[in-house]
From TrEMBL:
It comes from the Bacteria. Pfam families: Heme_oxygenase. InterPro entries: Haem_Oase-like (IPR016053), Haem_Oase-like_multi-hlx (IPR016084). GO terms for molecular function: heme oxygenase (decyclizing) activity. GO terms for biological process: heme oxidation. Transmembrane segments: none annotated. This is Heme oxygenase. CDD domains: HemeO-bac. It comes from Candidatus Methylumidiphilus alinenensis.
Length: 223
């Protein structure tokens, strides 16, 4: 059967469906506010580590994914978080004690994995804004605790474009991808909140996408 999906359509839909979550998360992470201190930053990085670890491991376990994403290994960011934690004084013993998120999206289906990756890869765009702020406000850079937010650095635009092309070319189920991307934002937000990194839960976001895509039994956030 011919693939009739227009090249840009899924990307537009992903952005439209998830942007309300993004706006909310960006605001409530508080990262760019003048009152955001080094202790807040360390708490945030610890929480990201507890979320990215299990999610990246689950994504890496989706065998079919590499056919569409040959550069998947290069995109893993857990090691960046670990180098940041080490730079900020967290040793191996302390790292082993950090909480790990259990409520991550069920992304064993390749389309769901793409939905999760859309969120994780998109976060590198915000990272380019965040790293400038972290440098100015907290004197952090890729070598002393902010490797995660530095991400791909100057290669960020190219990595994002490649990912967009790969996601589009795969042509996987749109509904699953969108639902999974929404669930990624929701579970991340909940985890940040549980770990004291977030002002509010996202539950009152009212957007067409929430009702049509993300409140399905598959996409719903478990209590
Ligand atoms: C202070 C925190 C953040 C800021 C300032 C920020 C900022 C941005 C900016 C400037 C863009 C580019 C928008 C565009 O070109 O249209 C972007 C895109 C994106 N961000 Fe963030 N971001 C933040 C946090 C996050 C987080 C924590 C995630 C997810 C873990 C995330 C996921 C995304 C995604 C998926 C996109 C791609 C949207 C698209 O074009 O399809 N962001 N962000």
């Amino acid at each position: 059967m011919m693939n009739t999906i227009k090249p840009i359509s899924i990307l537009n839909e992903l952005k439209e469906a998830t942007w309300p979550y993004h706006e909310r998360l960006e605001k409530n992470m508080n990262l760019l506010s003048p009152g955001f201190l080094r202790t807040d930053y360390l708490r945030l990085i610890k929480a990201f580590w507890g979320y990215y670890g299990p999610l990246e491991a689950r994504i890496a376990g989706v065998a079919e994914l590499k056919a569409w994403l040959p550069d998947l290994d290069r995109r893993a960011k857990l090691t960046l978080l670990e180098s940041d934690l080490r730079a900020l004084g967290i040793d191996a013993e302390a790292l082993a004690q950090l909480p790990i998120c259990r409520e991550i999206p069920d992304c064993t289906h390749p389309a769901a994995a793409f939905g999760c990756l859309y969120v994780l890869e998109g976060a590198t765009l915000g990272g380019q804004v965040i790293i400038r702020h972290l440098h100015n406000a907290l004197n952090l850079d890729a070598h002393n605790g902010a490797a995660f937010f530095t991400g791909y650095g100057e290669a960020t635009g190219a990595m994002w474009q490649t990912f967009r092309l790969q996601l589009t070319a795969a042509g996987l189920d749109k509904t699953i991808q969108i639902s999974s991307a929404c669930e990624t934002f929701m579970t991340l937000e909940r985890w940040l909140k549980q770990n004291g990194c977030h002002a509010k839960l996202i539950s009152d976001v009212t957007h067409r996408a929430v009702e049509s895509q993300c409140c399905s039994p598959d996409g719903a956030l478990r209590a």
